[in-house]
Write a structure and sequence with these properties.
The chain is α+β, with helices and mostly antiparallel strands. The protein folds into 3 domains: about 1-25; about 30-100, Roll (Nuclear Transport Factor 2, Chain: A); about 105-200, Nuclear Transport Factor 2, Chain: A (Roll), CATH 3.10.450.40. Helices cover about 30% and strands about 40% of the residues. Strands 1, 2, 3, 4, 5, 6, 7, 8, 9, 10 and 11 form an 11-stranded mixed sheet that branches. A hairpin with a 2-residue loop joins strand 3 and strand 4 (about 70-80). The radius of gyration is 18 Å and the shape is globular.
Length: about 200
Amino acid sequence: MLNKLNLNILFYLLLVLTMCQNGYAQETIKYETEENIDVKAVPIEAVEKIANFQRVLNIEKIKWVRETNFDRISYEAKGLWQGKPISIEFDSLGQFEDAEITVRLSSIEKETCRKIKRSLRELYPKYRLLKFQLQYSGNHSSVIDFMNNETPATSILKRFEIEVFAMIKTNWRSFELLFDELGNLLEKREINSQSLNKDTY
């Protein structure tokens, strides 16, 4: 009898096969499913680290999600920080991976913003911006201190993660892009989500 993880793997393989048949094999795919879970199902190490985030940064309305991306499992705490959506991700053992805060693209440094927009236009003549996030990774205590004090920290890696819905030939497809702090494109992969947002360029 197939369990849920095996079904996810089977679906992923069928998705890859279908895209290969349509000439899209060159595009890296992000296949991710989310499941709301109780805190009791979260590794204790992650729960303890989130308690530190909440105590120092006053993060509100924490909800836990388990993410499955092919054969990889991670845990994500979603909440609100200073009125902005925030997600804090941990690996399957509860080790901190990164914190992502949803902001407006126009809120970042102007030259970096122009550089990212130029890359998006070159990649996708027609697209819609779904989500723009600041991503902080490093030691979780250092990330907390950085977010709390907004002081420079060489141990913190700052990146930008973007989700867009773009027209490719005659089809709308979803993509996730990762940029460094200066606005240089690092990674691009297709995702299986096709939700729309309101920002069109």
